[in-house]
Amino acid sequence: MADTPIRMNNPGAGPVAPSAEEQKKMEAAYSQMKRQMAISQMGKTIKHKIMVLSGKGGVGKSTVATGLALSLAQQGLKVGLLDIDITGPNVPKMMGLDGRRLNVEAGRIHPAQGHLGVKVISMAFLLEDEDSPVVWRGPIKLGAIQQFIGDVEWGQLDYLIIDFPPGTSDEPLTVAQSLPDIDGMVIVTTPQDVALLDSRKSITFANSLKVDVIGVVENMSGYTIRGKAAAGTDIQIAAPAGRTLQTTSDENGEWSITLDIFKSGGGERTAEEFGVPFLGKLPFDPGFVRGGDDGVHRIVSEPDGPSSVAFAHVVAEIQGRVESSDADSGLEII
Ligand SMILES: Nc1ncnc2c1ncn2[C@@H]1O[C@H](COP(=O)(O)OP(=O)(O)O)[C@@H](O)[C@H]1O
Ligand SMILES: [Mg+2]
Q1: CB of 284 closer than 6 A to ligand 1?
Q2: Domain ranges of the chain
Q3: Residue whose CB lies within 8 A of the most ligand 1 atoms, among 63, 260, 285, for a mutation test
Q4: Relative to the CA of 54, which ligand 1 atom is closest?
């Protein structure tokens, strides 16, 4: 009796069993609601959310995003790295997670553990194989991004770093609209004028998204040559454009000279021009290229090396800016 289907044309006979289509719609609405709740929860469980952008590709944005995550993790902080660059997803490689696939349990996506315990989610985890590019239709891609934000089991994090495709695409817009309490964006540039021009576009873009610009980082800024000689030796290096660079070795006989291969200081000028902070310079370091190829990021292979130190400076600048607002919120102060 209870199993007898109840029809609409029999009003007053009790509830109507939903059709398969209605059932599907209800399930979709329910998972959308669950996702919305999870996303609003992220405002509390993830203390700081930072977007990393650049005006153009190849300036080292993914290298910098990964480096920032690792440098924060070096301090013992809990860090997540979300890579939504489907066009050139090389974050997994740099984090030693090449070939990983998405881990889904009970409808929740679980991040992979990269170097130094950084939790990583990458669009690359969805690829069938590395060589076939995924062609996403706009709405599907944006739906996938929302899912990547709402359905991932990040747990408690101090920082979530988000890497994007280059330029002013839809992805940052979707993230800015979906994710609550974004601290701001870090803009990566190289010192050449063309890259700088593009980073200016990124700053205007940030303003249009109503996301704060935390600051500008100048990547591939200078190449440092190091050597050893007797203490107090004068060292001279012939640099391009007929210049000579000079230094003197220290009491241990160690010396270093930085060559500005692509000019220098452009990032600083751009930051000044737009009234946004300059966060520092990261050197040109062939170790980053090797790290990208063999899956060991420079920060992991040389934790106290000059590039790690440079990253730590940039990270300290970022922390100074985003964590000062923690103190400002002053909830405990009566
Ligand atoms: N500071 C650096 N020194 C040397 N090579 C670098 C540096 N930053 C990035 N690279 C190299 O430049 C290439 C592009 O970097 P990537 O991070 O993928 O750029 P993007 O994400 O902006 O496209 C990679 O081969 C990477 O190893
Ligand atoms: Mg990239």
Answers
A1: yes
A2: 41-222+260-325, 223-259
A3: 63
A4: 22
**Residue having the nearest C-alpha atom to atom 19 of ligand 1:** 60
Classify domain 41-222+260-325 by CATH architecture. Answer: 3-Layer(aba) Sandwich (3.40)
Contact status, residue 293 vs residue 19, Cβ threshold 8 Å: no
281, burial (CB in 10 Å: exposed 0-12, middle 13-18, buried 19+): buried
Q: Which of 71, 202, 289 to mutate to test the pocket of ligand 1 (most atoms within 8 A of CB)?
A: 289
Contact between residue 157 and residue 46 where contact means Cβ atoms under 8 Å apart: yes
Q: What is the pLDDT of residues 14-27, one digit of tens each?
A: 667 888 888 888 88
CA 36 – CA 262 distance, rounded (Å): 45
Confidence of residue 11 (pLDDT cuts 50, 70, 90): low
The model carries a pTM of 0.84
Residue 51's alpha-carbon distances to 46, 79, 282, 297, in angstroms, are: 14, 14, 18, 20
Contact 79, 161 (CB under 8 A): yes
Q: pLDDT for 187-203, tens place per residue?
A: 998 887 666 777 778 88
Higher model confidence: residue 259 or residue 10? 259
Give the H or E element holding residue 175.
helix 170-178
